[in-house]
Structure formats: C-alpha cells, structure tokens
C-alpha cells in the first residue's frame, strides 16, 4: 500500500511540475511577445511623434493657428510628406502675404497635402476665369476650401468648358467662382443634371427659351448649381401651389426675385412662410394682402421667425400701421437698431411718418444722410 501511495505522489508531483513548467514557459513567451509588440508600437509612436513635431514646428514658424487647424482637420497632422514649405513658396510667388498663407492653412490644413504641380495646374485653370492672381488670393483668403478641397483638375477643366459652352459669360463665371466656388468642384454630371432639370421646368411652364431662363436664374442665384434638384423642385412646387401662380407668373418669379429662395431648405421656407402668415393674419391682413406682400418682396422668406416678429413689433410700437409696412417691405432689410435710430433722427428733424413715405428707412446710408441733412437745414 505504501509503495502505491508513493508512486501516486511521485506521479502527481511530476505532473504538477510539468504543468507548472509549461505555464511558466508560456508566461515567458507571452511576455516576450508583448514586450516586442510594445517596442514596435513605441518605435512607431516615436517616429510619428518626430514627424508631427517637424510638421508642427514648420507650421508654428509660419504663424499657423495650430489649435484651429487641429479642430478642423486633425488627420492632416498624422500624415507624412506634407508640402507646407512648397505651398508657402507657391503662394508667395502669387503675391500672398505670410499672414494670408497662415490664415489659409489654419482654416483648411489639407492645403499642405497638395503637390506644387497640382497647385500650378489648378491656378492656371482659375486664371482662365479670373483676371489676376490677386483676385484668386482674395477668394482663397475668404474661402480656402474652394481652391484646395479637390485636386481633380480634369473635372475643374471640364466644368469650365461646359459652363462656357452653355453660354455663361466670363463675367458670370467670375461671379460663380467668387461667390459659389464649389460649383467647380461639383462633378460635371451634377452640374449638367441641375441645368437640364431647370430647362425642363422652363419648358413645362410654356417657355420656349430654356437656356435664357437658366442663365437668368444662375445670375440671380449663383448658389443654385450646388443644390440638389430635389430641394429646388420642392421649393418650386411650394411657390406654385401656395401662391396659385400660372406658368408665366411662376417663370417671372423664378428667374427674378424668387430665384434665391430655391436653395433654401424646404423646412425653413415652410416654417418662415407659416410664421409670416400667422403674424400678419393676427394684425388684420387678408390672405391676398399677405401673398401680395411676399411676392413683392420674396426676401422676407429669409427672415427667421424671431427676427421677422421682432422687426414688425418694433415698427408697430413706433406707431406705424401694418398697411404702411406691407406697402414698403424693404424697410425690413434694416436692423432693429437702424430702424430705431433713423426713426428717432427723422422725428427730431420734423419728419411726419403718417403723411410721408417710410421707404427712406431702408435707404443706403449715403442717401439717408443726405436726406437727413436736408431736413435739418429746412
């Protein structure tokens, strides 16, 4: 019995020892692998840190706002082979100041990833539209994304050719590039799709010169080509159904003062229209008066609920009648402070709003000052 117990103890000991040795060996192996992985990871992190440090130093030396740049496009700071020095030299050669260059990179850091060859080609394409390097610099200063967002120069070239072929003048393309430069970053197909859609709208309303119609809309609203056809279609349907317009009247509205409404969000248009209607109903206006007011001054749709209500309340508090306001809608262009100041100045100068035109509340500052000076002399 004793030998059997001894053998059993020896067997258990050997088995336990073997398990312990296997476990110990496995732990050593895992620690070794983990250590190697840690070293590789640390090595990569060190390299990234060095690369980032070099980039950061370059940008700091250039006067770039690093915090702003990181918030806007943080991924740029993990890239290698950036071209910040090349970009700096290129823009300096075109007449940009160091401060302007720093501002461009701060607001659109991805600019430092573009190659000198791509920049040069894109600049030459822009010069087909703009008359000077300074004009391009001014656009970049205002909207760096417009130039650096895409490096697809072939698409840009095709868009320029297409828009010229459609009959847009050099002046019109300048306006597009100045106000809505993203038009030229659109795919060629997207621009064609919008123009074809607007031509179809024109034909469906009984007009036989769709090209003229589309060109008028683009002149009035340079942002139209960067909107979706769905949004524009919904807004056209809203205008037609809400104001019960026939084809001819709708064409005049769309190619004139109503063109700007087409790129607003449909919810925004509906919400503002509902607010205007309810506010003016409350003040005693009829549906016909409200519609006439909006069609005479479609820009009122741009006024948010609070801004519109506050301006109307301000004028009513100053004893203006609602009929005076809807007959002179452009006075709503002025800020509340401007309205209050001008009303006070004119009253002090002896101007009688109950018997005189209130349109001067929306006049340009130069024209208004001349009138006020004349009143004070009288």
From TrEMBL:
Lineage: superkingdom: Eukaryota
Subcellular location per the Swiss-Prot or TrEMBL entry: Mitochondrion
Keyword vocabulary terms for this entry: DNA-binding, Mitochondrion, Phosphoprotein, Repeat, Transcription, Transcription regulation, Transcription termination, Transit peptide
One MF annotation (Gene Ontology) recorded for this entry: DNA binding
Keyword Cell membrane attributed: no
GO aspect biological process, one term: termination of mitochondrial transcription
Gene Ontology CC terms: mitochondrial matrix
Principal localisation: mitochondrion
Pfam families given in the database record: mTERF
Function: Transcription termination factor. Binds to a 28 bp region within the tRNA(Leu(uur)) gene at a position immediately adjacent to and downstream of the 16S rRNA gene; this region comprises a tridecamer sequence critical for directing accurate termination. Binds DNA along the major grove and promotes DNA bending and partial unwinding. Promotes base flipping. Transcription termination activity appears to be polarized with highest specificity for transcripts initiated on the light strand.
Family, as annotated: Belongs to the mTERF family.
Subunit record text: Monomer.
Protein's name in the database: Transcription termination factor 1, mitochondrial
